[in-house]
Amino acid sequence: MEGTRSSEAARAAIEMALSRDREREQQLKDNYRAIGIRAAAVDYGGDFIASVKKVIERSVVAAKREGLIAEEEGAEGGVAGAAREALAQIMPKALGLNMGGKIGIARCNEHIVVVIFCSIGLLHLNEVAFGLGHRAVASLGPTDNNNAEK
User: Fold this and answer.
1) Residues with Cβ within 8 Å of residue 27, at least 6 apart in sequence
2) CATH fold label, 2-149
3) What is the pLDDT of residues 30-75, one digit of tens each?
4) Domain boundaries along the sequence of the chain
5) Which of 41, 50, 94, 136 keeps 20 to 30 A from 118, CA to CA?
6) What b/e readout covers 92-117, taking b as 16+ CB neighbours within 10 angstroms?
7) Using CA atoms, how far apart are residues 38 and 5, in angstroms rounded to an integer?
8) CA-closest candidate to residue 94, choices 43, 133, 59, 55
9) Quick one: which of 143, 93, 145, 134 has its CA closest to 6?
């Protein structure tokens, strides 16, 4: 399974972003932790342009809070870069509109994935979008490699 760690992290981040409530998030986190994947999720919403900074910040804060990364520039940059990539995939649909949804984040070894699942709308005209960003970072801090199951 070592060769598929990035896809496993992506799968976990997708499930976290799609989770409907905190109870399900916790179940997923526990299940993934048992197989060496750390995961987190956080809600967000607002005007797309104003939300870009909030989404990136919330991704980094959630990753640190849940022990996916340490408070190190390289690890924080990896999460911020993955969040930025996910936002770039949503931007063509969301620019100038409101959006709201959930950010799913997962880490397996050096692989960190950020997924953004959102509803984009103006009045009652809603669209759904999904963006995924991945980064491979040599070290994600003290929770690195074999410590993921702790």
Assistant:
1) none
2) Hut operon positive regulatory protein HutP (3.40.1510)
3) 999 999 999 999 999 999 999 999 999 999 999 999 999 988 899 9
4) 2-149
5) 136
6) eebeeebbebbbbbbbbbbbbbbbbb
7) 12
8) 55
9) 134
